[in-house]
Amino acid sequence: MSDNGSIYYCRPVFRPPSEAHSLLIQLTEGCTFKCDFCMSNLRKEFKVRDIKKVKQDLDAARTQYGPSVSRIFFLDGNAMVTPAEKLIEVTKYANDLFPNLERCGVYAHSKDIIKKTDEQLRALSEAGLKIAYIGFESGYNKLLQQVHKHAVKEDHIKASKKLFEADITLSATLINGLGGANHPELSRKHAIESADLVNKICPDDDRTWYIAFLSLMVPPGTEIFKQKQQGEFKEMPSDQILKELKTFIEHINFQNKNAHCVFRSNHASNYLPIKGVLEQDKKKILDVIEYGLTHRETLRPEGYRGL
Ligand SMILES: C[S@@+](CC[C@H](N)C(=O)[O-])C[C@H]1O[C@@H](n2cnc3c(N)ncnc32)[C@H](O)[C@@H]1O
Ligand code: SF4
Predict the structure, then answer these.
(1) 240 lines ligand 2 (CB under 6 A)
(2) Whole-structure pTM value
(3) How far apart are CA 51 and CA 71, in angstroms?
(4) For residue range 24-46, what is the model confidence (pLDDT) as tens digits?
(5) CA of 78, closest atom in ligand 1
């Protein structure tokens, strides 16, 4: 809490679009990683905040918004890195303050999840941490290494399975155009390996989980921005982006035909809004992509894209 009794934020803050109406609570600041494309940790030194202060922010929110808060998102870039006992403590505290709380959520790097034991993840889930947002970015290890993700496909698989096992909902993002323009083989491998990653994590029940594609933006200050300025990186044009997405969708093939994977590519960074359930809506999604490829005037104009 700030000295004036208001809720503390270390700005700018980033949260998933689906947490737009959630109470945002600053648990960590910055991120322990530094991926080439991401601006989450620019100008922020990483820290886990003092838990006493986080609790004071929750108290302030209770005074400000009353008891009816239903969703909380713990900021910042990878709040899942917070030691398990602290994360459990604030989650329990939030549940005591807000009796109608349906879920707490965090951003998580796959390695943050892998480092937690199954018992810790189960305890987190029981305390009320019910959704984790992982940035897969790709299933292609060469590309993951290139952008300094510090995780490989096998880490993403392991982390996802641990979340499912603990009954924490998975919401994962991948990035269209991550390898840049004029690398057709890299783009194809990115699409196919990403589809293979998603196929491999598909649970064998009908729970809901989420996969979303964003399209690469090149924010000032990031490593990829510097590469672009030096002529080492060129952004992928919209037609190549859509073809890459098409290859991804074509290669989705779940063994579990009752899977309920909500697929979205309707973020502000995307050229074409797409929504569906994989893999039952595969044909519908491919038709939308084909329409976008043949009706370029329907694509979101470059200047309207954002993060
Ligand atoms: C704030 S990050 C948090 C994710 C989490 N820390 C992790 O790495 O697993 C949220 C996601 O936004 C997406 N993102 C970040 N920068 C982006 C960019 N420049 N262009 C497109 N998507 C981006 C990535 O998918 C990233 O994982
Ligand atoms: S993508 Fe995630 S792990 Fe990478 S720098 Fe951004 S917040 Fe950190």
Answers:
(1) no
(2) 0.97
(3) 19
(4) 999 999 999 999 999 988 889 99
(5) 6
